[in-house]
Give the backbone structure.
Amino acid sequence: MVNKRVHVYVLSGFLGSGKTTLLTKAIDYFTEAGRKPAVIMNEIGEVNLDGQLIANEVPMSELLGGCICCSSRGDLATALNELVRGEQPDIIFVESTGIANPMEIIDEITDASLILPIELSAIITVVDAPQLLELNRTSRGKTYRLMRDQIRCANLLLLNKTDLLQESALQEVHDLVREWNPYADLHYTVFSQIDIKLIEDIHTEGSAGSPMQVESNEEAVPHSHEHHHSHNHVMAYTHFFERAVDSNAFEQFVSQLPQEVYRAKGILSFSDTSSRFLFQYAYREMDFVKITPKGDVPDVAVFIGENFAKDVIRAELLKLEAQSDT
């Protein structure tokens, strides 16, 4: 273990971009190749729902209730230490929250590498292409600037959901991404589908996309202590259900979420079906998948967005629960 360096890959990208989809594909690839992956998953909510998609045999550390680069800063080094010493993995994937600026994560991992046998191998940013296009055309606010920083820090970029854009719109997004980061390896993807060997090969390449280049980008991305207070516009509401709700009524509720809610996910029991479901919502699109949760997982939903009215969301959900009793 003394001479073995554990490769650490950071998965970055805004809420709902496709990070967890990429993570599950990478875990399958490395497991089948005889490598042992481990995961550090950060959620700003109180429940790690994305972790339900990770196989039981994969060692995982959960950092909940805060952004890994702000309120959970310091916990990352502890989680790395516990995984490296206790599980002895070959690879660690750090999936950050959608609102994390990778520079803080880079700082902490590189600090930890001074005392742990780990190596920061890559910052992989998954970009929601339609969302970036919309923000570039309509509202260049905090979310837009955060996505810019996530793109600038990367040495592997996945321009995801490209099937939803016309050729001219895709070229507009491509040009913007290349303006911010002309060096990273860039791939167009649908459902974050790439050859995972591209990830494996990153740490062996001595190109502009090497870990050394990622660390040197800090000078190009203005960063200060003010970042620790920059997520105030992003908020999360976690709702624990006391009873099952009607599936059609819940789907109708989700379809009418305010545009300020970017992302929602949860595990639910419905009064009109015996199965439990994992639901995902990102930018007006929803998906429901039957699931058998690992462990004792309550019915819960997490809503993430900018400056939305939590009390309104809560009131509507309580109304759905009350209706299920009638």
About this structure: The chain is about 35% helix and 25% strand. Residues 19-32 form the longest helix (14 residues). Residues 6-229 form a domain with the Rossmann fold fold (CATH 3.40.50.300).
